[in-house]
Amino acid sequence: MSFWTAIVLIVAIVFVTQFLREKRNATSGHTSGADRDPALHAAREQQLEGEIADLKERIKVLERIAYDDRKRLGLADEIESLRD
Question: At the top level of its lineage, which domain of life is listed (predicted)?
Answer without folding.
Answer: Bacteria
